Amino acid sequence: MLAKQFRAFKSTLDERGIIFSFSGYLSEGILYSLGDALRQKMALEDTDVTTIKKVFSVFVEQSQNIIRYSADKVQGTLGKAVELSSGMVTIGSENGQFFIVCGNIILEEDMAKLKGRLETLRAMAPDEIKAYYKEQLREPPDEGSRGATIGLIEIARRASAPIEFDFDRIDAERHFFCLKVSI
Amino acid sequence: MDNLFIAATERSPEVAFDAAAGTLRIKGESYPEDASQVFGPIFNVLQDYLGQADGNGLKVDFELIYFNSSSAKALMNMFQMLENATDVDIVVNWQFMADDETMKEFGEDFSEDLEHVTFNLVPVS
């Protein structure tokens, strides 16, 4: 029963072309290890350098967004400051392209701003995104953003198609936020 | 004047600054969550050096393979600092793998505003 259950779970992931999917508390150490495995997997399959770079970059920015902005977070001190943020990161391939999906909980009060930023990016052509990136690189960071603006532009810049995103309301205070990027 | 050497870690580059020789090399990858941890010490030694270079120049070699967006922001700040040091001769060598379009494009982006700093794009294979 146990093996059957988990084999079915793994088959579902395999059928969707998922290379790996992480769900739970994400840290910088986990990000490093997953990213390393991801690069090795792509290199072993003779993926070209530019594609590996793009996929890795989107993976890092998405994961660091979860680490920074997930509303489901535990913080404390274990000899040093520790911050663990809950979320999901999924990488796969479909129709000859890689895709990276991140998911995490965000607060109602942060939703409108994030949605606005993503809608702006989704509506831009690649050369507009590039120009916007260069402009933002020269701007001082937004108050309280810890680098969000430039990170989202970097994600949109590496994407081969317009970014996809969605919000699923959990309750009055929270949404589950998802962002999918194809490369 | 102080030299600076910081060994590379999994997510941060090797940094080597030699004040007597007037050279700075940043090599590897940079994707810490907080880029100021990596770039703060570099900004400090550069500020000291550029403030009292006394006719000496500065050569900066970048051998970066990958960096995240917050490191990109810090690099932009570094280039602005170098560009503002108009009384110091500054040469930047931006090394990248010849087949790596991303790093080449970053080099082009960073060099765009530079007038006083000499910026060389250096493809390697």
* Range of strand content of chain B: 25-35%
The whole-angstrom Rg of chain B is 14 Å
As residue ranges, the low-confidence spans of chain B are none
What CATH architecture of chain A do you see? 2-Layer Sandwich
CATH superfamily annotation of chain A: Histidine kinase-like ATPase, C-terminal domain
CATH domain topology of chain B: Transcription Regulator spoIIAA
User: Given the structure, what is the number of helices of chain A?
Assistant: 6
- Strands of chain B, count: 6
Query: What is the CATH domain class of chain B?
Result: Alpha Beta
What's the oligomerization state?
heterodimer
> How many separate domains of chain B?
1
What does the average pLDDT of chain B come to? 94
Features:
heterodimer; A: 183 residues; alpha+beta; Heat Shock Protein 90; six-stranded antiparallel sheet; 6 helices; 49% helix; globular; B: 125 residues; alpha/beta; Transcription Regulator spoIIAA; six-stranded mixed sheet; 3 helices; 6 strands; 35% helix
Model description:
The complex is a heterodimer of chains A (183) and B (125). With 183 residues, chain A is α+β, with helices and mostly antiparallel strands. Chain A has six helices and six strands. In chain A, strands 1, 2, 3, 4, 5 and 6 form a six-stranded antiparallel sheet that branches. The relative contact order of chain A is 0.15. Chain B is of the alpha/beta class. Helix content of chain B is 35%, strand content 33%. Chain B is built from three helices and six strands. Chain B has helices spanning 35-51, 69-84, 101-111, and strands spanning 4-6, 14-18, 23-30, 58-67, 90-97, 118-124. Chain B is globular, with a radius of gyration of 14 Å.
